Request: fold
Amino acid sequence: MSLLELRGISKSYGGVRAVDDVSFGIEPGTVHALVGENGAGKSTLVKLVTGVIQPDDGDLLIDGEPVWIGDAQTAHRLGIVAMYQEPTVFPDLSVAENVFAGRHPRSRLHTVDWRGMEDEAMRILRELGVDFGPGTPVRGLGVADRQLLEIAKALSTNARLLIMDEPTAALSPNEVDNLFATVRKLRERGVAVVYISHRLEEVAALADTVTVLRDGRHIDTKPAGELSQGEIIRLMVGRSLDALFPKEEAEIGDVVFRADGLTRRGVFADISFELRRGEIVGLAGFVGAGRTEVARSIFGVDPLDGGRIEIEGRPFRPRSPRAALRRGLAYLPEDRLHEGLVQPMSISDNTSMAVLPALTAGGFLRPRLERSLARRFMQQLSIKATSPAQVVRSLSGGNQQKVVLGKWLAAEPRILILDEPTHGVDVGTKADVHRTISHLAAQGLTILLISSELPEILGMSDRVLVMREGRLVTELSRDEATQENVIQAAAGVTEEAA
Amino acid sequence: MIARVRAMRPQELAAAAFRLREIGIVLALLVVIVFFGARASNFLSVSNWQDIAQNVSIVVVVAVGETMVVLTRNIDLSVGSIVGLCGYLVAATLAHHPGVPVEVVALIAMAAGLGLGLINGLLVAVARIPAIIATLATLAIYRGIDAEITGGKNITASQLPDRFLSLAASKPLGFPALAWIALGVAVVGAATLRFVPWARDFYAIGSNPDAARFAGIPAGRRIIIAFALSGALAGLGGFLFASRFPTLDSGAANGFELTVITAVVIGGVNVFGGSGTVLGVVLGAVLVATISNGFTLLRLDEFWKIFFNGFAIVAAVTIDSLVTRRLQEALRRRRAELLVPSPARADA
Amino acid sequence: MKSLTLRILLRWETLLVVAIIAVGIWSATLSPFFLNRANLLDLVTPYVFVGLMAFGLTFVVITGEIDISICSTLAASIVSFAQIFAAGVNVWAAALIGLCIAGGLGLVNGLLIGVLNLPSLAVTLGTLAAYSGLAFVVLSGEGVATFPESFTKYGGGYLAGNELPIALLVLVAFALGLGIVLHGTRFGRYLYAIGSNREAARLSGIPVTRVRVTVFVVSGLMAGIAGLVYVGYFGSARADAASTSLLDVVTAVVLGGVGIFGGTGSMPGVLLALILVAEVRSGMQLANLSGQLQNIVIGVLLLAAIVAGNLISAARTGSRPARLHRRRKGVTANARADAQVLVDSNP
Reply:
């Protein structure tokens, strides 16, 4: 009997089927890898299992019994714990207190039993083989140690199912080995570990079972030994590319953007590439490869430790987003809710936000101009809303994304960096956005398209750059690129392993 | 020394930074003592130090309560008004019922303070009014109630029983009675914050409110307790205040909250909550009181004290922030060295 | 979909107007003298300086910060002005210098909070004390009271046959001017954007640091201007000026519908709230309530304003409870887990 079984689980978000009739089981004492591209449905499943959201359809069974996981506390009680890339800790408290927060062991007098707490924490830490003690202030711990701390916390609550979401993203090779050893110990204890990772070599080394998801659907669940990395990739991407995008022919001109040796310590290194007028260059790679970070550094949001940038032949120092805008750069952020839009403001206000200096006369706002600007983009991008005055918060995800796109188009950039522009967006909007991108390129705009959706990358790009672990690993032309070789490069899988 | 710091592991760096605060205050205290000792003739006299001890005591008692509130990432601006109001209650009770035992009167003051603090707690945790606004309002409301009760009159020492008045002057074992009480409060406060489970929750709530909620800690209830304790201790502070300054009118302890908060901030309690010790706060209170006393002896205007309190708060917050940022930068750089992708990894 | 009239009726400003009328009726029952035209016009005059400070504070609060040092800034700037004037400098030149000082004090706040990213409550709590102490150092004791009428009339003078207070005109002029800046300029739009979502504002190319520093300078300057009106009205400059006015200023801002966490608020609302506060105080005066008792009422009013705001937004967005805690911003960057390091607190 499985520890956790999913039967026919489905979940939709605003018209998009994030998870579609997924069924598989997770056995205790196994490392069960969950693999799939971004948008395959992995994080939705995690949210369903940890009680953050509830399924529209289907059942979750624990030890054979159907359960309703209505909130995080319930999941906790059932022994389900999730660990994310950013460990949740109390930075001001010690390790022991972090492990036992809110459930301090009590002495006979009902006071906090510090000795007992630290001894128990010590026991767990030793079992995990970590090199820090229970009294260590957590503020001094790095990400790897904080992850181990979270595992210790999970162990102390007798977790039965531990979900790890991309745990090795921020770890050094040594720390990865350490983590693996810990995971194996967990397995020996009978804990089921759901290991979500795009690093297929890790999956090969660690997992007992592999489940592949694609586009919200369950593709296959097999013992790890029966699947080679190449086969996993084929299952991940094995879709027909009929739904190709209407890419217009664009005349590709001179180099307008040149990056040389861009480096940000600890994040990415030696990134060099060129962009030409009218080109759409796709930037592929898994989450954690550093693509967004490169974009943010180019746009002046995050610092750059080394390297040179030239825009239209002249050097450019990305001191701030304002400076970048003035040189004709625009960046559409990955997180539209928190970085792209000011939610309580109207479509009109959001659309004009990056171009206010141009839309104001002597500092004074001209609402009529703003409204007509908004209306122009509402029409051009087919934004469905009652009027430019409608508050952005009340729009659907797809329409929100279009507003963000409109905001950046309003800035009339010459180089547009799009970061996951169709993430979490319905099919209709996707098509609209693709049509727009293609049209812009045809008109002479240069586009750097960061995307985790292979069909999108392959369909839209004239060239595909692939990043992995903070480096640019390969460049493929439109004809050369296939789903397999892009993912292979992104995952670092060589031909032999395929 | 720089080399040794560089060689320290991140955990050790952080732990060292923890202890730095108390050492820093003690050092500053020594500097201050040397400075004033040289300039003011009677600075180092026993009677002066007993004076300082008396002043510090009242601040410490109230500051322990304020600390609990600040630990939860809130603030209590109304403590000055509570001190004044409860102080007056104490004096009024004793003036009209001189037979009541002193201990009982102290308890009455604490009970009244507890009630006032409870109101603060409910306003913040239940009515969801941000603490700054809530306690700014209650600062005025409680002060207004105080004014109404005093009715423009004041109570003078002559109306109070000797038993009470002698409390401030008595020095059991050579140490002022008020200081003993403050010491007791500090010890109990420190013990509570260390050993009582719901008090440990204050730290968690201030350190990461979302994580605290997720861990099942009932933040609302804990915050109410914190404010209630702050009020109760402010009530006790009012009792001590009345014993030390027995002529009380409605303006008593006006602005006292500033002194208390200065002691708390200098004492190393993070304004965002989550960290801070009673020891630090006591040292902070001693430092503030010593400087204040030194100013008086040097015949500087009262107002320099107020200026200094303000300057100290800004300086403490600035230094804390810069140190934290330096620490994070150092740790980040350490991490970056471990993490630079090696060429071998980049090959497909 | 609510009808237009209903939406106008449910606006905060409308509620304020209703409250003003209600309190007016109550005051009229206390004394028929209340409805005398001269009295009505003079209602707000003693609180014009409060209103001017509230306008400045509004700018700060909309960006998501707080400035409780304004009353001390007022005091420090007017005593400096007074001492300079007493030393023989022309009153207008001295006033200008006082204003510069006020702006400078605001700049200090702005640099600490906007550039160093220190928490605004702690910083302005400190500067509240520091500036107040400085004010007393500059001018302790009795204060200066020898200002020429050409100056004091702006605070205490009247036009139109002794009925129209000039101070009221000053108040309305600033309300209009600052209101236009807030609602009609891109600077104002920047304030709302930063208050609602600082990161998105930054990514949109808005000069966030510069704006945040500027709002504190504005707050300081408005305190300085309020100080000049204060001197005009009360006739003297003392170091303890406005020391008890913080409650009224904050109440005017909060009651005016300015969201304490930033991103919302309107200048007309604050003006109406100020009128309401002035009216309530004046009414209480008529009812012979002491100043301290009035403070209790204003304090309760402040609390009620927030609770009302909470209830309204809960009803509007379907019970999303108000934030219980401030977010920690500034000390740590918005960490991205991919290969980046310590996250100390929730982004």
About this structure: Chain A touches chain C through 50 residues (CB under 8 Å). The two ends of chain A are 33 Å apart (CA to CA).
